[in-house]
């Protein structure tokens, strides 16, 4: 039986060997990281080593890293009324771009009547002039703009947005879950006040995320109470093995980033050119700067559900967009926000590459697409 081709890396990634080794070692530690005896101190060391690794990877300070159960929880924790920064805040409303992940669009702990939306261009990039207008009137706002879109791969102008937001007295949250490990991301360089990450997008385990705050951010109220863990920001005994795996994964991802990004971009361009040549396929956000590993495409008459099944039968794993929306027969909210009609949005297929993707994988995916194009788009 031929080995399958995995092209759904934006949904989740294989576990890196470094993360697996770190987790196996952590599972042998019996101590609770809140305990003061030797066993507890060893468990605490594993947690704090990982906290330092995550902080160093994104330009933060260890004391400002909060581990959570996932990126979704990290986003929900970040979206909190009352946050304030040096000479800014407290924020009283939330503005989110229309192409954000569902966990951001839900608004976190802001009431629905305090949530506004920022429109995007046809290329899926935030309209900064619209953002300026939204911030002009009203109380200080927390603005949430993702670093890179999980469906199209479009990179957002977060540094420019940060300047606009700060000039208006607000704070900027960046969902950098898809960016970490694929492009360089530093909270200080882009001006993010809060940023969120997820381990399983970079070769770490599922079930671990992190919120990283810039120094001087205050007013964060814990969503989970009942213990003093995570510097009183999230109650509950830490998932030591998962956190250790996160730390190991982020170190490995950052070390390999320059070479991996270059190689993935080359493979993506080859795959994209091949896709475009068949049935006149359209590549979404092709006019925007994008992640080096992501392609979202469609062709006239294509149905995403059918295409995903067809690829799967050919031994190629792809998706129809966000994994959090898998199984839902509805158009992508991202493409709807970009101005595409429902029929076009329902035909979008996402292919995303990773560090172990090989040229042969791309060739097999293109062969599968040639077969599907001849079958599904006939007539």
Automatic annotation (TrEMBL):
One of the record's GO molecular function terms: metal ion binding
Alphabetical UniProt keywords: Iron, Iron-sulfur, Metal-binding, Pyridoxal phosphate, Transferase
Reported cofactor(s): pyridoxal 5'-phosphate
Origin superkingdom: Bacteria
Swiss-Prot/TrEMBL catalytic activity: (sulfur carrier)-H + L-cysteine = (sulfur carrier)-SH + L-alanine
Limits of the Aminotransferase class V domain: 5-364
Pfam family, one: Aminotran_5
InterPro entries per record: Aminotrans_V_dom, Cysteine_dSase, PyrdxlP-dep_Trfase, PyrdxlP-dep_Trfase_major, PyrdxlP-dep_Trfase_small
Claim: Metal-binding is one of the keywords in the record: yes
Function: Catalyzes the removal of elemental sulfur atoms from cysteine to produce alanine. Seems to participate in the biosynthesis of the nitrogenase metalloclusters by providing the inorganic sulfur required for the Fe-S core formation.
UniProt record similarity statement: Belongs to the class-V pyridoxal-phosphate-dependent aminotransferase family. NifS/IscS subfamily.
Name the UniProt record assigns to this protein: Cysteine desulfurase
Species name: Bradyrhizobium sacchari
Taxonomic placement: Bacteria, Pseudomonadati, Pseudomonadota, Alphaproteobacteria, Hyphomicrobiales
